[in-house]
Write a structure and sequence with these properties.
5-stranded mixed sheet, binds flavin-adenine dinucleotide
């Protein structure tokens, strides 16, 4: 099994419905293909961690890379793993910026991620990198 992390920039024309379409298809496909992971969307940036069988992940990544709903798709990390970080769901989605007017985004971010961290106790390089990039995203 491998874990793969990439980030990308959403096309300006992407609506909330488009994002929920991506999420719905991802949940369905990933569950069927035994892929787990997490998708973050914040300030037009996507950050995703995918985990599962190497060939399946590489095929999915090729499809994602070619998807015109985003651009500047950059693979930042991929490595073998023995155990999944995300065991209990096929795909989680955090729209960190949604309805955040007047709210402390950083504290919401930390709360969301302490919730996930509690469920992803097993630490890996990819896991740490994922949270690091997520923190950078929110602080930009
Ligand atoms: P299809 O039946 O081909 O398409 C499903 C729906 O998406 C249809 O409504 C179709 O109109 C629409 N659609 C598909 N491709 C495009 C496109 N290029 N532009 C506009 N609309 C389109 N897929 C996963 O399976 N798992 C993931 O974790 C995952 N993560 C993604 C993360 C991001 C940031 C993005 C942008 C896409 C992601 N995708 C993911 C979608 C992936 O790129 C493919 O579109 C999808 O895997 C195709 O699956 P399908 O053949 O079952 O869907």
């Amino acid at each position: 099994m491998i874990q793969l992390i990439y980030y990308s920039v959403a096309n300006v024309s992407l609506s909330e419905t488009d994002i929920y379409d991506i999420l719905e298809v991802s949940r369905k496909n990933n569950s069927r293909n035994n892929i787990t992971g997490c998708l973050l969307y914040y300030n037009d940036a996507f950050l995703q961690i995918l985990e599962g069988d190497e060939k399946t992940i590489e095929e999915l990544y090729a499809a994602i890379e070619a998807d015109e709903r985003h651009y500047n798709v950059r693979r930042v990390y991929a490595d073998d793993i023995q155990e999944r970080l995300f065991k209990d769901w096929s795909m989680d989605f955090y729209d960190l910026g949604k309805n955040d007017a007047g709210e402390n985004v950083t504290s919401r971010f930390r709360k969301s991620f302490s919730d996930i961290a509690n469920q992803t106790a097993q630490s890996t390089v990819a896991g740490e990198l994922f949270w690091d990039i997520a923190h950078q995203l929110i602080n930009d």
